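User: My collaborator and I are trying to settle a disagreement about how two of our proteins should look. Neither of us wants to argue from intuition anymore, so we agreed to look at predicted structures for both before our next call. Could you fold the first one, then the second, and keep them clearly separated?

Assistant: That sounds like a sensible way to settle it. I'll keep them separate. The first protein:
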Amino acid sequence: MLLHTPSFRSAALLIVAAAALLPACAPKSELDPDVSEPLIQPVARFEFHKAAPEAPPPGSRTGEEIYARVCTVCHATGTLDSPKTGDSAAWAPRIETGFDALVQSVISGKNNMPPRAGASDLTDTEVQRAVAYLANQAGAGFTEPQ
C-alpha cells in the first residue's frame, strides 16, 4: 500500500522530472566539425558511370574494325597456317585468285578458318571490307566497299 501514498507519488514524479531535465543542464559538446564530419560518413559509396558504348550495329563496321575484332586473332601471328598480315609472299597466291574468291573463302570457311571467320554476325559487305583491308596490307589494292 506504500505505492499508493501521495508522498511516494510525489517522490517518483520528482525523480522522473529530474531524469528528464538533467541532459538539458549538461554543457554543449564542442566538437570540431572538421573532426566529426568524417566520422559520420557512410561506410560505402556508390558511383554510377555511363555504360560502355555499344558496338556498332552489324553492317556499319569498317574493314579495319573487323580486322581488329576478328581477323587479328589468327592473321597477326600466322596461327593455324593463316597468312600473316602484311606478308606479301604468303598473300600473293591468294590475291591472284581475286577479290570475289577471297570473299567466298571467308564466307564459306576454308582450311582452318571457320565460316565468316567465326563471327556469325558479319554481313557479306563487312566480310568484303575485311578482305579488302587485310589483302591490301599485303599490297592487293582492292577497293573497300561502302
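The second protein, kept apart from the first:
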Amino acid sequence: MLETQAKVLLKKYYGYDDFREGQKNLIDNILKGKDVLGIMPTGAGKSICYQIPALLFEGITLVISPLISLMKDQVDTLNEMGIQAAFINSSLSDSEFRHIITNVRKNTYKLIYIAPERLETEFFSQFIQSLNVSMIAIDEAHCISQWGHDFRPSYRNISKAIENLRNQPIIAAFTATATPQVKEDIIRLLNLVQPYTLTTGFDRQNLYFEVSNPEDKFSELSTYIKNNKSKSGIIYASTRKTVESICKKLNKKGYTAAQYHAGLSEKERTKNQDEFLCDNVQIMVATNAFGMGIDKSNIAYVIHYNMPKNMESYYQEAGRAGRDGGEAECILFYSPADIITNRLLIENSNDPSKKKNDYHKLNEMSSYCNTDRCLRGYILEYFGEVDSTNKCGNCGNCNNDVKATDVTVEAQKIISCIKRMGERFGSVLVAEVLKGSKNNKVITMGFDKLTTYGIMKDYSKESIKDIIAYLIAEDYLILSGQQYPVLKVSSKSTGILKGKEPLLIKRVIKTKEEKNDKKQLRSDKAYDTDLFDNLRMLRKEMATHQKVPPFVVFSDVTLKEMCRHYPRDEEALMGISGVGAAKLEKYGNQFIEAIQDYMKDKDITILEQSLENETVEKQPKKRIQKESNQDSKVISYEMFQKGLGIEEIAKERELKAMTIENHLVECAHLGMTLDYNRLIHPDEEKQVLEALKVVDGNKLKPIKESLPDHISYGTIKFVKAKKAYNQS
C-alpha cells in the first residue's frame, strides 16, 4: 500500500509519471524500515529517495547536508511543490530560529535540513531527543571517510547523536561517488544495520565528455563561451589567482561572470552564488570550494581549466552539468603542468599512506587525460563498471581523431640537456638553453657552450615546457625541492635515451565537419526556441516574485517539453514531466495563457496527434484536419479491444499512459463501446460519482482535489464517459 502511495506522491508533488533507475528499490526498502545506502551519480534523483518516504512516515525526517546553500535550495524546491520543510543553520536570525523550532514542536514540517555540526550543539542534541524522528537522511555521505575526496570530521559524530535518540530511526545514506573503501567506511562509521545497498549505473548519457589540449586556454574558453553565451556554466580552476584572472577577463569581454573561492568573505560567496542560481550571471568561475551539492539544474556546461587531483573530484564536479536531464558538456583543459601543481600539493601531506593513495589517484587522472580510448568507458571502468561498448559516440575521443604524436627525439634532447646542466635547475632555464636564449644567466653560466644549446630553437618555450611537464607526469623526470624545484633524471628515462622506448603524446585532431557532427549529435530534440525564451522570461518573473531561483519554478527540460507540445489547458500541462499539482495551482494559468497568447500571435495551429507526436504547423489562418489523430485513437482502441491494458499499449506504442487514456475516452465520445470493468474499480467509481454530485462544472481539477490521492485523472475521465453514454 505504501509503495502505491509513493508513486501517487511522485506525480502529485514532482510531476513525474515513473521513478528513475534505483529510486523505487531504495524507497521500497526505506518504507520497509531498512537502513539503506544509495550510490547514485549527480542528477540521478537521490533526494526523492528520502523525501517521498518522509511524506509517508508519521514522524519527521532529519536531513544532514554539508552546505547552507544546498539546504536553502532544497527547502525552496520542496515548499514550491507544496511540501512543508525548513532548514536550521547559521544563516537564520534569532527570531527565524525560534519560529522554526516552534513549528517543529507543532509537527508543521515533514523534513528538517541541518548541518552535521548542528548535532554537536547541546541545545539541538537535547531538542531532537524530544521529537519523533522517523528517519535520518545523510547527503554527501562520502564526507565521513578520510579516503573520500571531501572528508569532513563532523560527519564522524553523526552515529553518536543517533544513538542518543529515544527511538532508533531509519538511516538512509546517499552519495554520488564512493570507491569500495569509502562505501565500507560509510556503512561502518554510520552503524548501518544490514543495509540495503544500491549502486546505480554511473553512466550519465546526457553528458558529453572531452579532454582538450589548447595552446591558449583562455582563447579556447572564450570561443566556447561565445558559442554558448545564452547558457549557464561553471568554470573550475585550481587556484584563487587563476579564478580571479579568468573572471576579470570574461567580464571585460562583456560576459556576466562571478567568482567563488575560499579567499572571499562568506557574504561575497553567498551573494555570488545567489546571483548564479537566480540566472543573474551566466558563468561561475570557481575553485573546488564551490558546488558540492549545488542544486541548480540547468547548468549546460562544466569546464575544468586545470586538471583535478582525482577522478572522484572530477566526476562529481563535472556531474553538476545537466542535472535536469538535458544535454550538457563536460570539457577538461589539460596541460601536463597541472600534474606538477597537484604533485606539489600532495607533497605537503605528512601522512605517508594518504600521500601514496593520492599519488595513485593522480596517476589515474593523468591517464584519463592522455588516453585515446572512449572517455566514458574509462570513467565507467574506474568506478567499477564494465563498459559494454568500445565507442559511446558522445565523447571527444569517439567523435574526433585522436593522434599519438611521437616526441621521443624531443624528449632525448631535453633529458640530455638536463644532464649536461648538472640536474640543478628548473624547467624555465632548461627551456631557455634548449631554445638558444642569449639572456644573461644562460651566458654567464656558460650554458651557451653546451652541445644541447639551441637544439630546439624552432620550438616555442611553452611547447618545450609542456614536454618537460609530460616527462615529469610519466616519471621520466623528477622534481626535487619545494620552493625552487629542480629537474632530475630518473632511471626510467634510460629506455628513451637509448631509443628503446618511444614516447607518444595524445593530440586530438578536429576537422570542421567533425565538429559539426558532434554538435548535431548533442543537440536537444526540436522545440520552439522563441516560445522557450518567452517562457524563460515568465519563469524569471515568477521566481523573482516568489524569491526562489528560476529552476525551482520549472526546469529547463520542463520548459522545453512545453515548447514541443504547446499545452493549452490544465490537463495537458499536467501531462508535462515536472509539473505537479502544487506548481499547476501556483503557475499553471500564467504559463497556459503565455502559450495561448504566443500561438495566437504566431498563428500556430497543431496537427493533433498524441502528446509525443504532436506536429506544429506555423501557417496563418489555416486549420488542419485531425485525421491522423483519429487513426491513432483507433489503433489504441483496437489494441485495447484485443485485451491489452493501458500500460501495455503505452509501452508498445511508445506513448504516455495518459495519451492512451485520452484515446479511449475520445473513442467513447464517438460511440465506441468500452469494457469499463477493465478500466474502473467499483469502489473508485462510487467515490467519483459522489464527487460529481457536489462539485460544479466540467473541470477535472476540482473533482480530483475532492477525491483521495490514489484516484487518478484517468479514472475520473472514464467514470464521466461511462455516465455520459450509459455504458456498462
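Some points you might bring to the call about the second protein. The longest strand covers residues 133-138. The longest helix spans residues 581-602.
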